[in-house]
Amino acid sequence: MPSYKIAELSFGSSRWNSVRQFNVDGVDFEIQRIGVESCAEALKRMIERFRSSVDAIAISSLPTEIRFRDRVYTHRQALDIMSTPVSIPLCNGERLRELTEINGVTEFIRNGTIIPEDGIFFPIGLLHMEALSTLRERYGARIGFADLYAGFKVPTIAEPSTAILELTKLGLGFAQLQDLGSLAPQAKNLSPEHQLRFKRQIEKFRYVWGDPALITLFARGTDLLQGREVLATTSDPRMHQELIHLGAKNVHSILPKRFSDWDSHLSFPAIDACLRLLKGKTAALSLEEWQEILASETSVAQETRRYVLMARPSVQTRLARRTTRPREKAPDFAFVVHSLSFRDLTRAPGLKLARKLPQSLQPTLERSTAKLPGFVYGHASGIISEKTGQEVNGIIYALCATPRVMKEEPAEVTYRKIEKLCYHAAEEGAKLIGLGAYTKIVGDAGATINRMSPIPVTTGNSLSASATLWALRDTVDKMDLLKVNADTGRVRGTATVIGATGSIGKVSAKLLAMAFDRVCLIAPKMDRLEDLANELRLLSPGVELRLSTRADDFAGITDVLVTATSAFDQKIIDVELLKPGCVVCDCSRPLDFSLEDAIKRPDVLFIESGEVVLPGANRQLDCDIGLPDNVVYACLGETAVLAMEGMYEPFTLGRDLDWQKVKKIYKLSLEHGVRLAATRGPSGFISDREIELTRELAIRARGLSS
Known about the structure:
The protein is α/β, with parallel strands linked by helices. The chain folds into four domains: 3-91; 94-266, 3-Layer(aba) Sandwich (Rossmann fold), CATH 3.40.50; 314-460 and 619-654, no CATH class; 464-612 and 681-705, Rossmann fold (3-Layer(aba) Sandwich). Helices cover 40% and strands 19% of the residues. The protein is built from 27 helices and 29 strands. Strands 17-16-13-15-14-25 form a six-stranded mixed β-sheet, with helices on both faces. Strand 5 and strand 6 (71-73) form a beta hairpin. Helix 3 (94-110) crosses helix 13 (301-310) and helix 12 packs antiparallel against helix 13 (301-310). The longest helix is centred in the middle third of the chain and has 19 residues, at 461-479.
């Protein structure tokens, strides 16, 4: 009989800590609840503590998202917590709570639990905007909230007029600067005069709606709950009893009966964790999946459907519908690309004329177009696996944002754009989505997006790393300047990795350490380099390692150089110092080396990271991604290979690549018929003749220097 352990880490009080066991459809669950007393650092430590000892982690009583007028705001500390890289589900239950609250509004009004004209008070209304809006706009309920106190410390209960909502919106920015634990409104901290004012204002409201942990914080030490009816987001009887103790007349749970029957102490994040484990999903459940679950509990499923439709901006929906072409077969996978430069940006539909803009206006256009939602850019079709003979197809999305702009703005801005594309891809039928270029670097390298997405996410970095070394080995073999040590089986030479502690840099270092006598590691932080060096010594005993924070230190002895940085036009190494005959593999996006660098050193061979050709005689990519026909980026290749293999899972996520996965995806690629494309350099594809000339110049330069 299967069994699962879940750690429910609450941002609230430790008074309600517990360990519970229950059974759902023959599956045993054990949930341990631990409160951290509103301490964000303690919550992060708890995630680290439990990440390898439980099957899922639920984060409760943490206000992670605020949806306000088609925008989503996430507090920096909450985002940091929810972005913790873990391989197990990390659940906040936000979608389930939002949809349940919408259904709850209609059910409570229908059965007489709520009389709208009697007024509903929300300690923090922005955490419950869908319920608040439904009550106010659909049923004409009188609404009050203390958001101005939470955001600005203004001791008043306001009604959500247009002006107040706009002021509250400004408070969201101010709240970002405050500690998360200080944002919950606590009436006991008010002066007696202001407490009296709160008491008079709250008399207009019969009901209080919210998380019992936040309501308790708000009302403890006061009589603000006296005679009120509480609509609670949990069915925990201990929390309900405390609310009664604080003066509440009744406590009604909005938790669907199905879930309260499982266990009376469950929270929405804990339910989220249970359902993901039951469904075998690491990624978040889709809105449609939640709707289907809730439809069995209530007769007002149309309310959740309304939310599903509202959750996507209309511009995004219209654009997606306009650009999605009818086709016989639904896509098996999806992939996200974006503009790598201003020139790339002008490939987008409607922006070709922008190429004529003066250079001074180009940054302005970059920042403006970055605000556009993602859209369907094209399709990949006719990909036929040589292993199975089956065809897979993909849908290609694009963002009109360059790396420079994405680096300037908060990671959550990019997260939300990609999240909407993930949901659209799921609607289209895709079972996996891959991230290209800087979208796989931003934030925590795909981990957060995977939790937000209804379908698994992969960054494609495993095949990117594999194809890089694939192209590098092919080029080094053709240069024929290095020999193998017969005794050790290692190449007699020096390999250097710049950006060695990054995702691709680290796995490149591990694989090069297995192949070369000497490996030099370059990165900004020496402590991280030393940690990596310790890993390499265990993995490849006998390899000579050298570490530095300065790229130029090893330029003169390097035979093979791999760069994997996010330098953005910064000079990372003096090319004049490079050893003649050095093969430079640039896997950074944007590139670290330019055509001008290559021209300066004709005795050094500059190549870009490996691209691949997908199998299929009639394969087609009907959009311009900046590569020749039938050639795709390796990260897109990984997404397609996983689809061909039927491995719809988050294969590659986070900053730390598994070198064994790199080898595995390489093997799968060969089995399915993926081939390395012709090696590219700064001026295009590199011919064998060009390699031969570079070799001759290198031998000549070495002779002159000796």
